[in-house]
Every structure is written in structure tokens, then in C-alpha cells.
Amino acid sequence: MLEAAERLEPIPTAVVHPCDQVSLSGAMAAMQDDFIRPILVGPQHKIRTLAEAQEIDLSGIELVDTEHSHAAAARAVGLVRAGEAKLLMKGSLHINEVLGAVLHASTGIRTERRISHVFIMDAPTYPRLLMVTDAAVNIAPDLDVKRDICLNAIELAHTLGVEQPKVAILSAVETIQPKLRSTLDAAALCKMADRGQIKGGLLDGPLAMDNAINLEAARIKKIDSPVAGSADILLAPDLEAGNILAKQLIFLAGSEAAGIMLGARVPIILTSRADSVRTRRVSSAAIATLHAYAQLQAPRKGTGR
After folding, report:
1. What is the average per-residue pLDDT within 39-57?
2. Which superfamily, per CATH, for 112-263?
3. What is the pTM assigned to this prediction?
């Protein structure tokens, strides 16, 4: 992914309120790797003071001065609406502030698709890229929302070179249980895929976590499925389950992770304030750049356009 992103022109990126060390250095590192052209949006005196303290050179970097983080989110979204930025990167502010500006009825950048979050994982014990969704935005998604979460993740998987991603719709069990809503949603999503309402991937569910990612577990439970044991995408039943799963993979299993929000007019780089600069630079910025180009069908370096 890094090599693929390096072949593309840097994407103008509105960095929202980069007022801590991780968010500012992460944006600058992504610029140095030639992924993005940052536009730093926030209180200019705070950004410059932080840059001086961290010995970060802001020469030639565009700064857009705002009073506070709420204003920074609104201004950054305005840059996207005006076509001056093609990506958003969350800085040192709460996700709700970013979403509030993105989803604003008259000044936001929402689309008909529900916005959702995807963690892209490189797990040391799993032989393929693993995506976990939704772990940050939709608290208790209903069937319609889960369909959009699924479609967002499938489109991102296509960008990352997975032609027909395998989507495991997670629950606590692998059989339909009327009292367990996640199993009913899983069955409905699979039938929606059969009827062409969800395209581009292979869906199966409900699947428990073990038989979604472990072939032997699927065999023992006699699950005959092209998805079981080799999932590319794990669709969580709700935000709590997705968030716990993703953070277990990061902090207990040592997974490298990127975070990106999809469904708005542009991809949104969304990483935790606990993330390392490496996560922001190598993973999130590279993936967001690739997906922005996939959406825009923008020119590659050297095309002259």
C-alpha cells in the first residue's frame, strides 16, 4: 500500500485542529512521505507554538487560522466543499466535533450513504489484511445502516486490491436465533446480497469470531462456506463489539492498524490520539490517499493533469 501511494500525487488534506504532538507530527510525516499536502486548520498561535517546541518546520505549509476546534472542523469541511481539500485528517479533537461538521444539513459533506469507520489491520497471526467495521461511528446500527457499513468496507477492500472480499457478519453464534438480533440481521444481509442489494463481495453470517477467521474452527462446527475461516472483513454487530475487537487486536495481538471513515464526499483519516506517528503516516494516510484516488480517478504522477 505504501508503494502504491508513493506513485500518486500528494492529496491536499485539511488537517483539523492539529494541536498536539501526535496529530501535527503525523501530518508532517505524511507530507514528508509525499502522501498528502497538509492544510493545517486551527488556532494558528497554538500550532506554531507546538511546532516550535517540537522543532517542526512549517515553512511553505498553508495554515488556516480558527478560534477553536469547533470552528476548525467547520472550516476544514468548508475547504472540502470548495474543492480545496480532497481528504480530511482528524487532529486533537473529539470525533463528534468532526462528525458534527461533516453531517451538518446545509454545510456538511454527507452523501446518501451512511458514514462508517473501518479499521484496517495487519495482524501478525492472520495471513491476510483484516478489516473491522464499524468500531467508531454507528453505535447500534440497524439493518439499513449495516448494509451501508458493508458497502463502504467492500469498496475500500476493492481499492486495496481485494477483488471479491469475504465479509463475515459477526455474532456470538453461527445459527439463527430469533432472540439474538445480530443473527437475524446477518441472515437478512446475506439474502440482500443474493438479491443484488449488496454487490462486490461474498457475505456469510451469522458467524462467531472463531469460525470467521479459523478454518479448523469452521470445520469442527461443520460450516461449509467460502467465507468461514478466511474473512477479509469482519462486520461487527455494534460499535462496542467492533471497538473492543479492534483494540484487542492492536494492544494484545500487536496488530498494525489504520483508521479511515467512509461514506462522506471524501475519506476521513480517523486515528486515536493514542496512535503512533507510524500508524498515521504509513497506514492511514496511505490508505486514504489510495481511496481518494479511487473515488476521484485522479491522475498519477507524470500525467501532466
Report:
1. 94
2. Isopropylmalate Dehydrogenase (3.40.718.10)
3. 0.90
